[in-house]
Write a structure and sequence with these properties.
Largest sheet: 2 strands, antiparallel
Number of helices: 15
Bound molecules: 2-acetamido-2-deoxy-beta-D-glucopyranose
Strand order of the largest sheet: 1-2
Radius of gyration: 42 Å
Distance between the termini: 101 Å
Helix content: 40-55%
Structural class: alpha+beta
Shape: rod-shaped
Strand content: 5-15%
Length: about 425
């Protein structure tokens, strides 16, 4: 035995001694214990610290303990080493294998063909046994490949099944749901309606998502995003020049519940820079609708919208008349195609309002009222029917006389403070 082995042995002795003290017994016992520790250490030493790994072999010819090389994976032991010759290892025959360094004089027989519903993941060769695995979507239970469990509605997958293990399902916790039977789908979060500026109309449970709906502040189907009245209310906040962080400044200075960053990003993605201001104020209004001041604004906007509909809603213009009206507005024109789409999507009472909103967006948020006044000045050129001219005049007059909103703007500015004013407010 080499000096190194002896050293390892020596250093391990105190541990062996204390072990035998803890299990008091006969001297024989102690000796046996020490012998086992010695053996254990020599095995460790032979396997860990040398390469190729070695084993002790008693050589009958010389009556000596020899350290022989073990046989590598893929072979079996044909002859122990002698004082003169190294160990002789020979390759495993077909369908046999060994997968570690060893001292066995035979190889192991590869597992027979795979079971039903299994596939061969790894074919047998000299160094590896055949590995069978259940097909996709199944796991091994004792002898059979069974289908992974599907979690029913109300339950979600917390651990997907593997070839060895079944799916683990768990009941969806509060705020989550699963509406399908699936071996893959986890529980999903209920949709947060307010994040989308929508109202929660039916609260979800473990099997159903929240149901959101349009907030009825705008005519959803026809898709008028910002109404004439909202524009009248909020126009003051649209700056004449946009700085890149304009929206953030506005968000930071609006009182009440802040519009969250996610919604701000969504508004930025979905709307042109001018339109963003209206959308933000709209969402802010919706999220703070329980605050007294906002309640009043909402009431007044509702009143305003009812009046506008009364003035303009019964106009019932033909396609040609709508076209002339759009022609008469300054700037970029709303084309025939948009007019046609509008007449299809919107009730006749909403068509003018929708087209005016399209015109505003097309023209980088020009003041719609100013546009309408321009149109009226030239109404003779465009041969509007008298009833239409009158409706438009009334509407303009109404929105102008709707002076309350100027008051709100003042209130607003006071609340918002100086920061926003310094970004230059266009109106007032
Ligand atoms: C035996 O199969 C294993 C796993 O498939 C592979 O890594 C190894 O290289 C193969 N050995 C021979 C000798 O083909
Ligand atoms: C499950 O809920 C989602 C989200 O609300 C919905 O889109 C989907 O259609 C629902 N699936 C079934 C099967 O009800
Ligand atoms: C929904 O989103 C709003 C705004 O981001 C947040 O304040 C609220 O806590 C969310 N609700 C739920 C149930 O997560
Ligand atoms: C979950 O909500 C749906 C519809 O909102 C309802 O039909 C169902 O009974 C509810 N389930 C439970 C367990 O309350
Ligand atoms: C929205 O309006 C529709 C009809 O226009 C109505 O049936 C629905 O109840 C309203 N929703 C809310 C949340 O007010
Ligand atoms: C609008 O006018 C058309 C014809 O010009 C008519 O057929 C239609 O019924 C009218 N609609 C309403 C709501 O008055």
């Amino acid at each position: 035995m080499s000096a190194r082995a002896a050293e390892t042995h020596r250093s391990a002795r105190p541990a062996a001694a204390s072990k035998s003290l803890r299990f008091p017994g006969t001297t024989m016992n102690k000796l046996l214990c020490c012998a086992l520790v010695f053996l254990d250490i020599s095995i460790k030493w032979t396997t860990q610290e040398t390469f190729p790994p070695k084993y002790l072999h008693y050589d009958a010819e010389t009556s000596h303990q020899l350290l022989c090389d073990k046989c590598p994976p893929g072979t079996y032991l044909k002859q122990h080493c002698t004082a003169k010759w190294k160990t002789v290892c020979a390759p495993c025959p077909d369908h046999y294998y060994t997968d570690s360094w060893h001292t066995s004089d035979e190889c192991l027989y590869c597992s027979p063909v795979c079971k039903e519903l299994q596939y061969i993941k790894q074919e047998c060769n000299r160094t590896h046994n055949r590995v069978c695995e259940c097909k996709e979507g199944r796991y091994l239970e004792v002898e059979f490949c069974l289908k992974h469990r599907s979690c029913p509605p109300g339950f979600g997958v917390v651990q997907a099944g593997t070839p060895e293990r079944n799916t683990v399902c768990r009941r969806c916790p509060d705020g989550f749901f699963s509406n399908e039977t699936s071996s893959k789908a986890p529980c999903r979060k209920h949709t947060n309606c307010s994040v989308f500026g929508l109202l929660l109309t039916q609260k979800g449970n473990a099997t159903h998502d929240n149901v959101c709906s349009g907030n009825n502040e705008s005519t959803q189907k026809c898709g008028i995003d910002v109404t004439l009245c909202e524009e009248a209310f909020f126009r003051f906040a649209v700056p004449t020049k946009f700085t890149p962080n304009w929206l953030s400044v506005l968000v930071d200075n609006l009182p009440g519940t802040k519009v969250n960053a996610e919604s701000v990003e969504r508004i930025k993605r979905q709307h042109s820079s001018q339109e963003q201001t209206f959308q933000l104020l709209k969402l802010w209004k919706h999220q703070n609708k329980d605050q007294d001041m906002v309640k009043k604004i909402i009431q007044d906007i509702d009143l305003c919208e009812n009046s506008v509909l009364r003035h303009i809603g019964h106009a019932n213009l033909t396609f040609e008349q709508l076209r002339s009206l759009m022609e008469s507005l300054p700037g970029k024109k709303v084309g025939a195609e948009d007019i046609e789409k509008t007449t299809k999507a919107c009730k006749s009472s909403e068509q003018i309002l929708k087209l005016l909103s399209l015109w505003r967006i097309k023209n980088g948020d020009q003041d719609t009222l100013k546009g309408l006044m321009h149109a009226l000045k030239h109404s003779k050129t465009y041969h509007f029917p008298k009833t239409v001219t009158q409706s438009l005049k009334k509407t303009i007059r109404f929105l102008h006389s709707f002076t309350m909103y100027k008051l709100y703007q003042k209130l607003f500015l006071e609340m918002i403070g100086n920061q926003v004013q310094s970004v230059k407010i266009s109106c007032l």
